[in-house]
Amino acid sequence: MKSAIVIGAGPAGLMAADTLAMAGLRVTIAEAKPSPARKFLMAGKSGLNLTKFEPLDQFMSHYPDAAPQLQAAILAFGPDAVVEWAESLEQEIFTGSTKRVFPKVMKASPILRAWLARLDGLGVTLHRNWRWTGWADDRLQFDTPEGEEHLTPDVTILACGGASWARLGSDGAWVAQFPDEQIAAFEPANVGFQIRWSDHMARHFGKPVKGISLRAGSQVSRGEIILSERGIEGGGIYALSRLLRRGTPLTLDLAPDLSLLALKTRLAKPRGKTSLSNHLRKTLRLDPVRQALLMEFARPLPDDLAPVIKALPVPLDAPRPMDEAISTAGGLRLEALDENLMLTTRPDTFAAGEMLDWEAPTGGYLITACLATGRWAGLAAAKWAMQGKSYL
Description:
- The two termini are about 20 Å apart.
- The protein has helices at about 10-20, 40-45, 55-60, 70-75, 80-90, 110-120, 235-240, 240-245, 260-265, 275-285, 290-300, 305-310, 365-385, and strands spanning about 5, 25-30, 50, 95, 100-105, 125-130, 130-135, 140-145, 145-150, 155-160, 185-190, 195, 210, 215, 220, 225-230, 230-235, 250-255, 310-315, 325-330, 350.
- By secondary structure, it is α+β, with helices and mostly antiparallel strands.
- The longest helix has 23 residues, at about 365-385.
- The protein contains 13 helices and 21 strands.
- The chain is elongated, with a radius of gyration of 24 Å.
- Helix content is about 30%, strand content about 20%.
- The strands form six sheets. Strands 6-2-1-10-21 form a five-stranded parallel sheet, covered by helices on one side. It has a four-stranded antiparallel sheet with strand order 12-17-16-13. The protein has a four-stranded antiparallel sheet with strand order 15-14-18-19.
């Protein structure tokens, strides 16, 4: 029986192992941490968003500059396939009003338990506390609780993760095993940004800001944000983090459902002795936190408030540190891999998941791509093991 090693037990690694085992290979997973899929479990604490149902071209637009290998993998295992996979693990799935897809239990742990049980039934061996330390000629080296181990499988799949949330296993240490030209520098993705607030904003820290849209260049996000002592967090800002960390200015539309003309008309209503705060609340339904943002970034207020309400400039400092990011950009360059996600310099070794140089926003896109690339690499590795070079 042909053998396979999967390094990393996150969603990409587990999907690769599942695919290899279903193809008839003897599969071993080497996980550096004491338990598998720690980041997956953490992501599920706030509701495990598996994927999103939307037109395919719109779905794929959330993978900017995606290399052909990534596109092919996702097209072969898109939202419908993700749902089928979850249901195969006996998980009841529902689609929310925003077309985002969740397990009914809203947690990752039931999926993970069912998945690990299936892998165990397929004969997959999971080694915990096995840290990959590179190659010794054609052998894989691992630091293990029993000392150094060397293995020589027929095929290897690397699913080592990115470089955020190091305490959960994604520390990016694996880059030391590759030449510099094969690695794109890691950058924080899906991350908050620092802002130097004035003192009057403190009472709004921890509060969500709803009913806004955010713009960076031509990209618009209608997600929610959270104000914190350090700056802003939340899905609304995460979706724009790629552009923002490159210096694109951020503006907020505090009344996105009203046109500029409608705003001007409403603001022109006689105010009398009503305070500006009450006038904004009554005419525009601006709640205290949105009014506070207006006062923070637009003082002294212009006579014509409508344009600044529609495009309030927000000066950002640096993104939060990488270890606070939900995901990372950068990693193993896709140019270092062939169309099957096999290393061009090391035949029989494939790579998948967040360790590859791609990025996407939260909202189901991250997990979908990790599962899809894990499956794509698994299928290719199984063919390589069974057929050798003739399959290409």
